[in-house]
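Technical annex, item 7. During the second reporting period the consortium partners agreed on a shared format for inverse folding records so that results from different sites could be compared directly. Each record opens with the tokenized structure and is followed by the designed sequence. A conforming record, contributed by the partner at site C, is shown below for reference.
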């Protein structure tokens, strides 16, 4: 058996694994009302490197709980390889 190298974990992988079950893509009304918070995230993501490839500068996606709109999960997403990480 060999040690596997870092493989991109895409949002599609997470959806398949059930990690995002009960969540739908998009901002909650409360987070959408925080433009300053979004600007800070954009600033941080612009200088953040991907853990799975040499890409610097990531996007991000928010998912809101269908049952509790106050609950959400945010993931960085690499535009080059699709790797995602929750933050
Ligand atoms: Zn990447």
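Designed sequence (site C submission):
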């Amino acid at each position: 058996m060999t040690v596997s190298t870092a493989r991109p974990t895409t949002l599609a992988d997470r959806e398949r694994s059930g990690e995002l079950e009960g969540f739908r893509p998009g901002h909650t009304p409360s987070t959408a009302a925080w433009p300053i918070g979004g600007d800070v995230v954009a600033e941080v993501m612009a200088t953040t490197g991907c853990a799975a490839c040499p890409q610097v500068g990531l996007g991000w996606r928010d998912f809101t709980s269908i049952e509790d709109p106050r609950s959400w999960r945010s993931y960085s997403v690499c535009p080059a390889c699709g790797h995602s990480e929750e933050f």
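The radius of gyration is 14 Å. The longest strand covers residues 59-65. All partners now use this format for quarterly exchanges.
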